[in-house]
Amino acid sequence: MSLTRRAFIWSTAGSTVLLPLCLRAQSSNPALFQHGVASGDPLTDRVILWTRVTPPATRSQTGPISVDWQVALDAGFSRVVRGGTAFATLERDFTVKVEAGGLDAGRPYFYAFTAGGQRSPIGRTKTLPTGAVPRIRLASVSCANYPAGYFNPYRCLANREDLDVVVHLGDYIYEFENGVYGDGSGLLRIPEPRREAVTLTDYRVRYATYRSDPDLQDVHARHPFIVVWDDHEITNNAWANGASNHNEGEGDWATRKAAAYRAYLEWMPIREPVGSSYRLYRHFRIGDLADLLMLDTRSLRDQQVAGDDLPALTSPVRSLLGKDQEEWLFEQVRVSQRAGTVWRVLGQQVMFSRISFPGRPVPRSDAWDGYQASRERVFDFLASERIRDVAILAGDIHSSWAFDVPRQPWDGYTARTGAGSLAVEIIAPAVSSSPLFADPKLRELASTFRYLLPHLKYLEGDSRGYVLVDISRERLQADWYHVPGVLERSPREAKAASLVCERGSSRLTT
Questions:
Q1: CB–CB of 35/64 below 8 Å?
Q2: What is the number of alpha carbons within 13 Å of residue 203 lying toward its C-beta?
Q3: Nearest 5°: CA angle at 399, between 394 and 405?
Q4: Mapping DSSP to helix (H, G, I), strand (E, B) and coil, where does residue 423 land?
Q5: Taking a C-beta distance cutoff of 8 angstroms, is the pair 259, 272 a contact?
Q6: What is the Cα–Cα distance from 219 to 227, expressed in whole angstroms?
Q7: Rounded to whole angstroms, how far apart are CA atoms 466 and 481?
Q8: Listed residue (484, 499, 508) closest to 406, CA to CA
Q9: Is residue 51 within 8 Å of 41, Cβ to Cβ?
């Protein structure tokens, strides 16, 4: 029987998810683990394990399904160290998430699930190290748009043997109707549902579509993820109480946001907060080498304002992080510095660095430039507490950038020596979304940016890819890897740039 894009089966009645058969042998009882496995939020002694069970079409789809899980020291599972039983339920869209504890620090493990006599793919994960840590390697990614092309950067990361964790900075899915932002018709990559995702069922279906991709499944099976959302896991230009893309006829905003959040927690290998809603910011300690602080710059922010509304842009009452998260950030960084931890790494969504002149309109008010009082408070804190060795990771803008991070690039900062810089910023390109310079007007601005921004150390806006962040006690190195394209599947990649921040310097050099 030949398969087409429409060769799908209906899964759960709760989410009516359409699932590709992926060229498996046809039967009335297809494989139960059609979305693979994943791990995430590793700590020194535990890690989150995830899968989803696709109920057979011949089975009643309302009752729980028993799922056994095992963690082993080897891929052959001859040395099983942990295990248990969980249940895939309709209430959670038949996703399964367990916390495998009692593990040793800084070592790889293998894991798998079984249900209904079938075994899932085998996943590999790794706990965080403790004590004196000499080195860790992170991969920074963002913005994977299913209809825009294949997830070739994920394939490249799945092929790497030298990663400790993948840090995903948001836009894991896109909510748009096919054709609004990328048309997958030619590649047979039309996201389901075909309409814009608005309801809980819609978001579940959309995650199921994305998680059917073999490259995404393989990178999840190969490396643990640490994730946070941006706006497209909800809708374009979302903020705490609304979004520019939440329109008439799309229902109550709070209901939509809650649905997006619930689906995100169900489908992502993330440790779920207890007793708090929209609490995605959290902390990972990597021995004495680094503290990774994941920030939510999306769902707690005030509303975006126009780039030429200067009073609003500088208003002290507007916040990007919200009061509680901002206080949490300062305390975590303070504790990290006092503990003697070598590096502080902030994983967040949008560009932190200034690309607008003081008193002038800002080109991107959706980023920290549009919340200038929030950024000034961060600068005040870094300066007053004499915080050093800070690296800011970002995505969102579908291009590769690197900055020194002075408070004021045109006053009190020396580009040649880095004097005046308080941190560095490393921005990852998109996985598959349209590159920034696909817009000719933005391409024309590139030379202007390079000329007017003395703190800008790298800019490339034509390519997709990822950033490898290699952290040692002496330096933090960022390597940008780009792929040739996303219109055909390919494992090819090339290193495009490499910049280094020496410990104590707060500046990037080649």
A1: no
A2: 25
A3: 45
A4: strand
A5: no
A6: 14
A7: 6
A8: 508
A9: no
Cβ-count burial 241-259 (b if 16+ within 10 Å, e if not): ebbebbeeeeeebeebbeb
pLDDT given at position 23: 29
Helix, strand or coil, per DSSP, at residue 210: helix
DSSP 120-138: PPPEEEEPPP-SS--EEEE
Tell me how long the chain is.
510
Q: What is the DSSP letter of 338?
A: H
Per-residue pLDDT reduced to its tens digit, 319-366: 999 999 999 999 999 999 999 999 999 999 999 999 998 889 999 999
Using CA atoms, how far residue 46 sits from 41, 107, 221, 222, 358, in Å, is: 9, 11, 17, 17, 46
C-beta separation of 409 from 454 below 8 A: yes
Return the closest-CA partner of residue 13 out of 65, 50, 51, 59: 59
Q: Are 472 and 134 in contact (CB under 8 A)?
A: yes
Torsion of CA 156, 431, 348, 390, to 10 degrees: 50
Q: What phi and psi, each to the nearest 5 degrees, are found at residue 406? A: -85, 160
The reported pLDDT for the residue numbered 18 is 32
Residue pLDDT, tens place only, 103-158? 999 999 999 999 999 999 999 999 999 999 999 999 999 999 999 999 999 999 99
116 close to 88: Cβ distance less than 8 angstroms:
no
Helical segments of 305-407, H only: 310-313, 323-338, 372-384
Q: pTM of the entire structure?
A: 0.93
Cα–Cα dist 144/158, whole Å: 15
CB 149 within 8 A of CB 487: yes
212 and 22 Cβ atoms separated by less than 8 Å:
yes
pLDDT over 90 for what percent of the chain? Answer: 90
Q: 246: which DSSP letter?
A: -
| pLDDT for residue 1 is more than 50 | no
How confident is the model over 311-320, as a mean pLDDT?
A: 96
Phi-psi region of 208 (alpha: psi -120 to 50; beta: other; left: phi over 0): alpha
Dist CA 252 CA 261 (whole Å): 14
